[in-house]
């Protein structure tokens, strides 16, 4: 049993951690109790709730917010332990995550801003397809846990998605039904797609990213602003975030000289 346990990757992880702690003890470097304290402020909890609402088009329930908090705490603990083990050095996944963090910083102001009623009405008028309702759609979807993975698969003739407990095909379903399953952000994106035999996307949702093959759309009408105001604000926020991030990258890119050998 001991040999079997030692072959377990988790055992290697724990042993490596123990070795580091032992070295610190030998060097006379005590563990800082404050470094073992995790504080999730009310502002950070509000940010978690806002992130859920932005992707799903509605505020989280108490149970859903508790799940978001549990996920945050788990990630924070694993993140701190990964730093202790030096796992951030030379890791492409960490590199991508830090780049994503810069994107988030570029759009931080949009996250907390409150657009005026006039701005939202103009957005609704300028993007009518994103607020369609009452019609039915038929589509297939392939799920991916990252935009990069979805983009890589989109170049394949017959792409293959990752396993997830979501319907791979929805036949003759209403926009509202699609929203309940995939969230408002996904609906806003799929409403803009043309009917096609080709895979399109990737499209974001509250779960990750999707390639979509939209085979049918019928009877779709634009919903009045008053009935979809929350969706309009969420869509405005997502669209404005994308614009801000693109502009921030353009400014940073202009400051660099890139040589590709």
Throw out a few tags for this protein.
261 residues, PPIase_PpiC, 4 domains, two-stranded antiparallel ribbon, Peptidyl-prolyl cis-trans isomerase
Give your account of this protein's structure.
The protein has 11 helices and 6 strands. With 261 residues, it is of the alpha+beta class. The protein has 4 domains: 30 residues; 59 residues, no CATH class; 71 residues, no CATH class; 86 residues, Chitinase A, domain 3 (Roll), CATH 3.10.50.40. A 4-stranded antiparallel β-sheet has the order 3-2-5-4. It has a two-stranded antiparallel ribbon with strand order 1-6. Strand 4 and strand 5 form a beta hairpin. The radius of gyration is 23 Å and the shape is globular. The chain starts with a helix and ends in a 7-residue tail after the last helix. This is Peptidyl-prolyl cis-trans isomerase.
């Amino acid at each position: 049993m001991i040999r079997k346990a030692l072959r377990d990757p988790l055992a290697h992880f724990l042993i490596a951690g123990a070795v580091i702690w032992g070295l610190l003890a030998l060097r006379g470097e005590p563990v800082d109790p404050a470094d073992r304290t995790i504080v999730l402020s009310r502002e950070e909890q509000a940010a978690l709730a806002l992130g859920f609402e932005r992707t799903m088009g509605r505020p989280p329930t108490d149970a859903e917010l508790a799940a978001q908090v549990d996920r945050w705490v788990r990630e924070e603990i694993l993140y701190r332990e990964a730093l202790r083990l030096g796992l951030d050095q030379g890791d492409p996944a960490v590199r991508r995550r830090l780049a994503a963090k810069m994107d988030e910083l570029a759009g931080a102001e949009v996250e907390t801003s409150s657009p005026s009623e006039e701005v939202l009405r103009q957005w609704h008028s300028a993007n009518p397809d994103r607020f369609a309702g009452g019609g039915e759609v038929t589509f297939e979807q392939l799920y991916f846990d990252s935009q990069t993975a979805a983009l890589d698969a989109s170049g394949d003739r017959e792409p293959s998605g990752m396993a997830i407990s979501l319907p791979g095909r929805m036949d003759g379903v209403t926009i509202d039904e699609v929203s309940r399953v995939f969230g408002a952000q996904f609906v806003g994106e799929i409403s803009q797609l043309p009917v096609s035999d080709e895979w399109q996307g990737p499209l974001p949702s509250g779960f990750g990213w999707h390639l979509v093959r939209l085979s049918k759309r019928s009877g779709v009408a634009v919903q009045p602003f008053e009935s979809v105001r929350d969706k309009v604000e969420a869509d405005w926020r997502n669209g404005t975030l994308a614009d801000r991030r693109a502009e921030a990258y353009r400014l940073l890119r202009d400051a660099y000289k890139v040589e590709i050998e």
